[in-house]
């Protein structure tokens, strides 16, 4: 359909201005000081949905950040209904000093747009809106299928209020296929459909010793140092072969099928390029598994941060009263966040020395997912990606999590298509996050084709 390409060509400049506007709003969902900005961003999304022609656009308040909804249902009862899901919230920007340009002052360099949220997920939500705009424009204000959009502001903090919303509005959100654009392509130029996401179990461990910080000379050697105790607890969580020691941790892990192993191997993962890009001497992980197997289909346990005592410059002789660590576990089918939270707490308590008080607090979680690969949505997506990129797409998994995807299946009983246009080199959650403009425009094109191809699929 040359009209889509033409529409993109004619509007590129305007699109980039609009996207810059969107990216300028600091919608950091985890930061209390940004509550107002997150709300402003929801308004921006809602205004844009209205402007491109969606109906019944509404901002739903929640106990946390608002959810934006819009729809166009005039394709009729016999046409399929696609529910698009994305998020307009972003991660914090620290360490801020490592950004080349300020994170909320979008800058274009070398064909890429740099800003927090550029690829995760505002840029990808934006390309979805522009695809719909192009379809409306080229089809006299009509779309080829029924479309509902659900754009939330709490994905980066675990989608805490979305489950309730899905349950309450299950009828309103009823659809045949869910479309999500919040993942990466296997490599640049290689369109990809993701059929698996890992889950997450995030806990904070606190170890408390004496009632106050102490002089390490006057007291050292007479009582347990909470930081030392925490380090030995952490050391006991994994063995040196990268296997997690928590009792029953692997009990529900679904092994890769021989066919999946073969398919992963067939993707010829560029191990050397990986080392070079990350500037590491070698990869490391659970023995017996390849890098792709480790990141896509094996669970992990990692310390995200650890603190306590003195961390300023210079030296201070002190025994900390308290030590803490944030620990996350990535989960794979059929593990669940609840099950793992219980197991890890029990294990940590069982190895905790009697010399200190040890507490484990569950912060948030997400269950892992595998989506079926032979659905009408997947087939339409394959054709659309081929048309836009000129090459066949590959099936991949992702090591990251999107908490709500499993619930689309459970609550709405609809399969999800994960068709994203990011790259793993685009610094998501990290300084200098960016989105390749070429993929932004290809994404608009592929998404417009997707809706057209969906019209050719039976409900
Ligand atoms: N878009 C990501 C998920 C993702 C990560 C997809 C990597 C593909 C590759 C999403 O915004 C995200 O960051 N999710 C969080 C979820 C968590 C905060 C519950 C994650 O995976 O850490
Ligand atoms: Mn995301
Ligand atoms: Mn993210």
- Largest β-sheet summary: 6 strands, mixed
Compressed to H and E, one letter per element, the order equals HHEEEEEHEHEEEEHHHHEEEHEEHEHEEH
Strand order of the largest sheet: 1-2-6-3-7-17
Radius of gyration, in Å, reads 24 Å
The number of distinct β-strands equals 18
Shape assignment: globular
| End-to-end CA span | 23 Å
The percentage of residues in β strands lies in 15-25%
Helix content: 25-40%
Number of helices: 12
Integer average pLDDT: 97
Structural class: alpha+beta
Unique bound compounds: ligand BES, manganese (II) ion
Q: Outline the low-pLDDT stretches.
A: none
Task: Map the helices and strands.
Layout: H1 2-23, H2 35-52, E1 55-60, E2 67-72, E3 81-87, E4 107-109, E5 112-114, H3 122-138, E6 146-152, H4 162-168, E7 177-180, E8 192-197, E9 199-208, E10 214-215, H5 226-235, H6 258-266, H7 271-278, H8 291-297, E11 302-308, E12 318-319, E13 322-331, H9 337-351, E14 357-366, E15 369-370, H10 376-389, E16 394-398, H11 405-412, E17 416-418, E18 434-436, H12 437-455
Parallel strand pairs: 3-6, 3-7, 7-17, 8-16
Antiparallel strand pairs: 1-2, 2-6, 4-5, 5-18, 8-15, 9-13, 9-14, 10-12, 11-13
This protein binds ligand BES and manganese (II) ion (2 copies).
One manganese (II) ion is lined by residues 87, 120-121, 155, 182.
Describe this structure in words.
The chain is an alpha+beta fold. The chain contains 12 helices and 18 strands. The strands form 5 sheets. The chain has a 6-stranded mixed β-sheet with strand order 1-2-6-3-7-17, sandwiched between helices. The model has no long low-confidence stretch (mean pLDDT 97). One manganese (II) ion (MN) binds at residues 91, 120, 156, 428-429.
